[in-house]
Model the fold of this input.
Amino acid sequence: MNLAILSVLVCEILLILFAGYLVISWISQTPFYPSSTSKLDKVLKDPSLNLPEHINFVDIGSGDGRFVIWAAKKGFNAEGIEYNPFLSLYSRFKIFVWRLKNAVIHNKDFKKHDFSKYNFAYLYIFSEHMDGIKEKLFSEMSEGSVIITNSFKFGDLHPDAKIDKYNIYYVKK
Ligand SMILES: C[S@@+](CC[C@H](N)C(=O)[O-])C[C@H]1O[C@@H](n2cnc3c(N)ncnc32)[C@H](O)[C@@H]1O
Done:
C-alpha cells in the first residue's frame, strides 16, 4: 500500500470516529466539556472538607478520564462512568499508558450503575441530568460519603458547603 492511500485511509478512520463521537454526544445531550483537576486539587486542600480516610472515587460522566487518572495517581481507588465509547476508549488508553492498576472506566449510562462502593463522587454534568441520579446517589452511597459537583446543583437541595464554584454534599442517612 502506498503512502497516499494509507494517509487517505487514516483520515477516513479519524473522520468516522469523530462523526461517531459527535452523534453519541448529541444522543447523550451532554457534550464533553472538560474541567480542571488543579482546581479540584485546591478544594481538596481546604481544611473544612471532610473526606473519608480510604477513598473510593468515582467521576460520574468521566469524559476523557482526566479525573480518574488524577485520583488514581493520588492513590485512591478510582473509577469513571462514561457513556461515550470513544471517550471511554481514549481514557482506557491513557490509563494503560500510565500503567495505573487502581483506575477503571465503565462504558455505560451512569443511571444504570451501582454507586454503593464509592465514598467520594465528582460530577460535572448539567442540572437536568443531575436530578435524574440524585435519589440514586444519595440512597446508594454510604453515610459520610462526599459528593462534589462542579457549577451545577441537585435541584433545590442546598449544598452543605460551597468552595469557589464547587458544591459539597455529605450523604446523611
Ligand atoms: C461536561 S463533561 C465532564 C467530563 C469530566 N468529568 C470533566 O470534568 O472533565 C460530561 C460527560 O458526561 C458524559 N455523560 C453524559 N450523560 C451520560 C450518561 N447518562 N452516562 C454516562 N456518561 C454520560 C458525557 O459524555 C461527557 O463526557
Summary: Residues 28, 30, 32-35, 59, 61-63, 66-67, 81-84, 87, 109-111, 124-125, 129 surround S-adenosylmethionine (CB under 6 Å). The chain has a mean pLDDT of 92.
